[in-house]
Design a protein that fits this description.
This is Phosphopentomutase. The protein has about 375 residues and is of the alpha/beta class. The protein has 15 helices and 19 strands.
Length: about 375
């Protein structure tokens, strides 16, 4: 399966909030953002409005929505903004939410995966759970788009589960916005209706249940299709609760593929994959390998020889040159693996000893296939 390059600066997840800012009549000043990695080129054009609600459905790829539109008639009826956009690399939640919240590419904002090495240590930062020893404001030091919009006079609000308030990822990706804790669908809709009445405003609403279901049961499973139908109903109810003057924008952070057990590579059962690797990071569809000194070439040869056409195996320098992460700042370089492994088709790379939970997942994401990279941008 062909790998899909990210559309940074044109139609990527990081371009969404800058496009909303322009539609609100409060374009973000490029001079207030870092010189490198700034998204927001006019690739996404949204209709003008006094208020926007941005609803992110975790795990709803554009291709999945197209295949199973019968389970989501309301979402399927919405107008597609231009062509399908792309997630960044890797196509995983922590990276995507930070791209959305900062308007920056992964190589600039620095949240470069589900797990990545903490430079100068032999430890990984698991970005969804974070690490108490890592300051999220130092790890991701750039002002978020929410902060910049607040400065421009736009009320910005995050509506999310209470457990995420003040979390490391929330601080890295969404600081600067007011936080409203809401665990249930009814709470979320009511809170969104209330705060979006302010003008100008941007209200960000997150739902992670479809991703959770896909991981455990697989895309197109009965459970996943039922969950998609529930998300569709939630989106429709949300729209009905909002006045016509408020625009509803629906996006996703990535898509998903179902892993094929016949294409699963277990590093604990294949000793040639462990040779020269001091730390295994990333996730099953996008591994980041931190190598022993002088071992990079040997690691690349071993992984290419073992995985063959099941994955693209690149050195960090090769991946950066391809633009996978956008411009990469000097502080972010050591967080990236010395070797990157992007799986094709339905392949996965697991560690049944060190990462046993991944071996039990059905749906996976993180790589650059169209099923994982293409995301919908829908407007009502």
């Amino acid at each position: 399966m062909t790998l899909l390059e990210p559309e940074y600066g044109r139609r990527s997840l990081g371009d969404v909030v800058p496009a909303v800012a322009r539609a609100l009549g409060r374009p973000l000043d490029p001079g207030t953002a870092p010189d490198r990695g700034v998204a927001g080129a006019p690739g996404l054009v949204l209709p003008d409005a006094e208020a926007y609600v941005l609803f992110l459905v975790d795990g709803l790829g554009a291709r999945q929505l197209a295949r199973y539109e019968h389970a989501a008639p309301y979402l399927s009826s919405l107008r597609v903004v231009d062509a399908a956009a792309t997630a960044g690399v890797p196509s995983t939640t922590a990276t995507s939410l930070t791209s959305l919240g900062t308007g920056l590419t992964p190589g600039t904002h620095g949240v470069v995966g589900y797990s990545s090495r903490i430079p100068g240590t032999d430890r990984l930062l698991f970005a969804l759970g974070w690490d108490a020893a890592v300051d999220p404001r130092e790890w991701q030091p750039h002002p978020t788009t929410f902060t910049r919009l607040q400065t421009a006079g736009v009320t910005t609000t995050v509506v999310n589960k209470r457990e995420f308030e003040g979390s490391g990822l929330t601080e890295a990706a969404h600081r600067g916005a007011d936080f409203v804790g809401a665990d249930k669908v009814g709470e979320r809709i009511a809170a969104t209706q209330r705060v979006s009445a302010r003008t100008p405003s941007l209200t960000y609403l997150y739902d992670g249940d479809l991703d959770w279901t896909g991981h455990r049961h697989g895309v197109a499973s009965t459970a996943w299709l039922q969950q998609l139908a529930m998300i569709d109903s939630e989106a429709e109810q949300l729209r009905e609760s909002l006045p016509a003057s408020v625009r509803l924008l629906v996006v996703a952070d990535h898509g998903m593929v179902d892993a094929d057990p016949a294409q699963r590579f277990d590093v604990d059962a294949l000793p040639e994959l462990s040779a020269g690797v001091s730390l295994l990071g990333g996730e099953a569809r996008f591994r980041q390998l931190y190598c022993q000194r002088g071992a990079v070439d040997d690691v690349v040869a071993a992984w290419r020889g073992t995985l063959g056409d099941a994955a693209e195996v690149l050195t960090r320098e090769e991946a950066v040159a391809r633009g996978w992460f956008g411009p990469v700042s000097s502080t972010v370089v050591p967080r990236l693996g010395d070797v990157l492994v992007a799986c094709r088709d339905r392949a996965s790379v697991v560690s049944t000893v060190g990462w046993s939970h991944e071996s039990r997942l059905v749906g996976l994401h993180g790589s650059l296939t169209p099923d994982e990279m293409l995301i919908p941008v829908l407007i009502d």
